[in-house]
Structures are given as structure tokens and as C-alpha cells.
Design a protein that fits this description.
283 residues; Rossmann fold; seven-stranded mixed beta sheet; 10 helices; 7 strands; 17% strand
Amino acid sequence: MDRATAESVLRPEARVALDAWRVLVEADNEQVRRISERDLDADYYAPMTERFRPGSRPSQELPVLEVLARAEDTWIDIGAGGGRLAIPLAGLVRRVIAVEPSEAMRSTLEAARRDAGLANLEIVSGAWPDAAASGDVALSANAVYDIADIGAWIDGMERAASRLCVMVLFDRGRGHAWSELFEAVHGEPIAALPAAREFVAVLGALGRTCAVQTIAAEPPGVTPEEAAYTQARRICWLLAGSERDARMQAFLRAHYLVEGGGYAMPAMRRALHVITWTPPGNA
């Protein structure tokens, strides 16, 4: 490898890094549209909204976010889901603006807001960056894996935030750990989405200086049979009862079945990263 090649790999221009991110997302999108047995026009998150409701499962990044929060802040939670972060943050800061495009998620978030009795949480319908909002901190937690125009997303965060931008991402995107299952079901490698490592590379190419806090992911336990099948169908875009669904079940039985019942599924992620940087106007 010569010096020019080394520099292009380790010091990519902003345009190159942004294009590379787009290529990975578009490869996933093409693959999903080609192999999916499910209705891709349906709300993807509708069947799993309760998983994103506050308290439904541990929010490992929350202690880090609590340290970053200031009482006088306005936080924008981009892709707020069912409120697993927006609700607790609203108890710490002056105001939270929760931006969420999914109708099913917004319904769950609204119910959580009512249950918590919060008057300082505003829910905004729409996709980022079109759903404009402004505040002190722009937070985006696990919302950009399949966003092709990551540059526009970052620009929107930096315009919206006067103090800090916060990106929360796992070390790898959807299905990456299940590549063997995916290939056994579909006969081709999975087109893995970008995640934390790629996002830090993009920020570096854009000339941003960031801090990264890493949290070890919880180790997986034993998953009951039907829950394992549901999870695998979502990863592999399958319909229950199809030929490929039967292939998936056979693969799980052959590789992950444990004595006594249930499946020791592979770890979806190894780590969670909280990435922070200062908007350029305030750097």
C-alpha cells in the first residue's frame, strides 16, 4: 500500500466518507427490498412499540446522558420512539422536544407522557431533519443506521443545537451478528449497515472533534422459542409459515438450541457508544 492509498483510507475527504456511508445504507435497502417477505410499506416499529416505552428494558446510555444534562437545557430527542429516554430526561431538564416519525411510536410516547404527568415534553411528528426544532442539545439515539444522507442529519443536529450534539450508536448495525443465519436463509451475505465506527469516521472526515464513551452491552440470555423465532423473522424479513421461515427455524435448532428449551442467541451487539461533539459555531 502506498502513502496516497493509506491517506485515502485513514483520512478520507468529507465527500468520500459521506458517499461511503450512503453506499452501505443503499446496499442494505436494495437487499431488503429484494428478499423481504413482509410489507415494507407498513410501520416497521408498530409491532414492537412497547419495547421503547420507559422502563420496559434498561437504557444503558441514560446515566451518561444524565451527566450531560443541565437543568436549564432544552433537549431535542430525534427519533424519540416510545420515550425511553425523552421521559426520564424531561424530569431533569427544562424542556424536551421529542421528534418521532412513527405514528405507533408517537402513540406510545403520548401515553407515557400522560402517565408521567409531564408538561415540559413536546411531541413533534415528522422525519429529521425536516421536522425543525431548536434547543441546547440535539440527541439522536440509534436512529441513523439506515439514513442514507447522514450529512443532512448531522447538519440538522448542528443547526438545532446551541451547546452539544449527542449520537448514541451500537458497535454494529441491524443483523450483523446474525450473518450466518441470514446467509443460511437467503443464500447471500447480509449487507451490514453502518454503525458507531463508521459514524466516528464520518465525523472525523467532517473535521469534528468528538468524545466517545463506551458501555459494554448486556450479554444475551436464553430466549424462549417463539420469541427467538419472532426476533429472527424481523432480522431476516420473513413471514411465519414460509419456506424460508422453516429454514430459519431449522438453523436455530441446529445451532442455538439449549438443553431444557429455548435458544442461546448470538449477541446482537458488543458495545454501546455515546458520541458527543460541539456544533461548529460554538467550537
